[in-house]
UniProtKB/TrEMBL annotation:
Gene: bioD
Listed Gene3D superfamilies: P-loop containing nucleotide triphosphate hydrolases
Top-rank EC class of the record's enzyme: ligase
GO CC entries: cytosol
Name of the molecule in the record: ATP-dependent dethiobiotin synthetase BioD
Catalytic residue positions: K34
Organism placement in taxonomy: Bacteria, Bacillati, Actinomycetota, Actinomycetes, Propionibacteriales
Length: 226
């Protein structure tokens, strides 16, 4: 079981999830789960994250809950006055999927503590609920530029405070022309967190065709990532 979180929204979490899915195909069947997707109401021009992952990888995907407005899930649900499942309900469904797939990847919404339900449940709560039943690897997707060290340490410390040790970091979008901050962060991120850098994904990777993405993705992972 792999739970993919980000240090914030827009750090490349969905493309990182797709890359992790491609890498996991070598170990057997894969399904990618998006417990809650927001911003997919009438008139939306953007596909949901699960659809993006499926397009890039061809892997099976499941989206449990879809909400119209591009807001945090609990805010989007309250705005429309709709009930959405609690995190515990998502955990039960994911445990069933784990019985039928070799790898289940769960992509969160925004950052680690974004509320996925109207009772205050977060992706961190979901990971903690899954952990007693299955081995849970929490992968933290991070930005490359200024501010990422602080955001990453806060996220990693929050995971550890719940008794979970993150599996590693993924830089979700590495610029074609990295500056000094990006170059230094590539060394400093593992140093300040004590975590492995699992992969560095080039910016624009999400625009690749399916065959090209599947061919390129394994090369984005560091040899130490296994």
């Amino acid at each position: 079981m792999v739970v993919v979180t980000g240090t914030s929204t827009g750090v490349g979490k969905t493309i990182a999830t797709a890359a992790l899915a491609v890498r996991s195909l070598a170990d057997g069947s894969v399904v990618v789960v998006k417990p809650v997707q927001t911003g997919v109401g009438p008139g939306s021009q953007d596909p949901g994250d699960a659809e993006v992952v499926h397009t890039l990888t061809g892997c099976a995907v499941q989206e449990f809950t879809a909400l119209d407005d591009p807001l945090a899930p609990d805010t989007a649900a309250r705005l429309r006055g709709v009930r959405i499942p609690r995190v515990a309900e998502h955990a039960d469904r994911i445990k069933v999927l784990a019985q039928f797939h070799d790898t289940v990847l769960v992509e969160g919404a925004g950052g680690l503590l974004v509320r996925l339900d109207t009772d205050g449940g977060t992706l961190l709560d979901l990971a903690a609920l899954l952990a007693p039943s299955v081995v849970v690897d929490v992968v933290v997707v991070v930005a490359a530029g200024l501010g990422t060290l602080n955001h990453t340490e806060l996220t990693v410390n929050a995971v550890r405070a719940r008794g979970l040790e993150p599996a590693g970091l993924v830089v979700g979008s590495w610029p074609a022309a990295p500056g000094l901050a990006e170059q230094c962060n590539l060394e400093d991120l593992p140093r300040v967190t004590g975590l492995r850098l699992l992969a560095v994904i080039p910016e624009g990777a999400g625009a690749l065709a399916t065959a090209d993405f599947r061919q390129a993705a394994p090369g984005w992972f560091t040899p130490a990532a296994g």
